Amino acid sequence: MTSETTEKVAEKLPYGYSLGIQRPYYQAVASAATYTRRTALSTTDAIFLLMIALFATLTSLVNIEKPRTPLFQEPAIVETISNYYNGTFFVPAHPPLVDLVYYMLARFSQYQGGFPGFSNDLAYVFLRAFGVICRVFTIILSFFVMKNAGCRGTTAMFGTSLVLFENSMLTYAKYMNTETPYVLLCLIAVFGFQRGVLMAPQPASFTAALYMTLSGLSVGCAISLHWAGVSTWAFLLILSAIRMWYVAGDIRVSSSTVFRIAVTKAATLLVLPLTIYFAVFSVHLSLTSKASPMLSYMSPHFKAGISDSSVHGTTAPLCFGGAVTIRHLATGAYLHSSNHTLPNSPDSKHIVSGYGLEDASNEWIIERKDRSQMVPGKFSQVRDLTVVRLLHRVSSQYLEVANERPPVSEQEYNNLVFSTGNISYAGSVNNNFQLKVVRDFSTSGLSSTRIESIDVAFQINNLGTGCFLMSHDAMLPSDWTASAEREVFCNNSPALENSLWYVEKNENEHLDSDADAQHIRFAMPHWKRVVELSYQMARMLWLKRKSSDDVNTGVAWTWPVPLTGMTLYQSLELGHGSIVFGVGSLPTYFLAVGFLATFIATKLPQMMKLLSPYAQRKVYNEAYDTYINALWVAALGWLIHFYPFTKPQVVQSLELTPANYLPALMFGILGVASTMEFVASKNFVAGSAMMVGFLAAAFYFFLTYKALIYGMAWDEAACWASKVFPDWDYDCTAFKVYEAL
């Protein structure tokens, strides 16, 4: 091919492509001019950012001290602060970074561990100001993110102003919450990724690595703060994979450079976030070193690391006369009996269940099947296949199995388990149980014929009926017991995992004061403690799932419009009625979902074709190429941060609120700004007019609903007229008193 022919072919290539030896290739590495144009900050930009920061701070601080009662997520956060102060162990409902931050702020404000709530020594305004700071930085950072995406200064100002006048972001930011800090971390991660990957003229440079480190730090903090942080992590990993695809196809980038980029990404986006996650949980564990009821959810190996736990230094050998707690291996529930009797039971049969928390009614005394063979003061160890009787320590009743159907699992092959009798009860073969060690589920280094605490799993075989004690996640009827308890029954052919038990707490007066060799000493690795705590967090959410009859599994689909809002506070006090209601700015929400839906419908098929290394983009100018790049990133970010909340499993496990939509909304606003930039590049007057109109609508909505943001006085008629959708369920009668004044 002659040089003249080569020049003609190159002229016909789409923007961003160059002619290679065998094929055209996409230039994945941006030019220095593009990098400078998108990162430069003009004097006008700086003045705008100073003004916007001042205005954002002022709008956030209005009425921040009201109300003086905890609302939204504040009750849970204040209770967590109290737990950290007292050092009591708890399983957090979400990754604990934000709770740790609020705790440190509370200690800085001289908090002395008062009763959960807004006590006199809790500077709640100071703690609420943290959300204000996060909001201000979010607004400022959104300007840089839009500039990085290819928007000019004026367009970035437009997008930043949409964020500034977004009602729901301001409403939630005025109070202690997890969403506002998470949105900020999400933006920092995107900002670092843009600077370090999308635009750096030297993709393997030290500066690019620093920006990627910033992104990795932010992702690590995000997954340590909010469950949705996993969405941000997945988003950046997907972008990184796509980026590597194009970098590998750019023949200007050497193989060694591609390798260095890959290593940098692996270190910053995989290793670094996990390191931060483990570090945050390490701090959490160091601050919660005192035993509490929630410690019951953890394994005995975990509990043994808590100095005042029930199993710390527990007796190892299991022997007759000892008082033990017997725990189900699969569910973690304790074999439990109480003073509740089985309904319609003339024989005063007491309910035996699986109870999730430590309690005195979980303790059983191990006796021989023939009580006369019990020799006081003599040590006699329980071994594999030993036949025992279990005497309930509190009620002095014996565990028994009868050929009757259990309350929940009423199948013919299931038998009823209960406790009955008294200390002098003669009993029968139905009170005799053989303990069978299951070696595959035992971890003891001693002989498998010995039964010892914690490390040896066994089955409990009733000799009268031939069945095995088992439990599962099915709960007993709520009117049978005082709390949620699992069913325990006896089955002739049980699933092995559901029929395994082990001894946790083991007290024996003959061994408790013996040498240290008779006691179990655990050294559970710290990383395993973090893994177990994370697992229990997820498991508790899973067990908290509601049935589809109790929850609207499609609630998330009402957020993008938004059809619903959230009442954070309401007071009907005469002369002082007020409402704080979180509702999104309709103009901004409509713009975000409208532009993204249009883009996905019209451009997604074209984007899929670009996955082929031989596909060429059918664009011939920089503006359109920038628009396509920015919009598909915004659409992907919106989808990844929104779609998980539409899954029934997530809806049933989490307490979802419209605030969960805020990260997705930020990507929607980025899409709006990028679209306006493209329109303005084609027709500056039309684009500018549209931006002014959209911004005016957002500002008008902000002013119209400011009473719901700040809990201010409002006219009742204006309040009723403001209800655009039926599910905006704030009670306008709260403002009735103002009409009479």
TrEMBL record:
Signal peptide: none annotated. Residues 315-369, 448-506 form the MIR domain. Gene3D superfamilies: 2.80.10.50. Pfam families: MIR, PMT, PMT_4TMC. PROSITE patterns: MIR. The chain crosses the membrane at residues 46-64, 125-144, 181-201, 233-254, 266-287, 579-602, 623-641, 661-680, 692-713. Transfers mannose from Dol-P-mannose to Ser or Thr residues on proteins. This is Dolichyl-phosphate-mannose--protein mannosyltransferase. It comes from Babjeviella inositovora NRRL Y-12698.
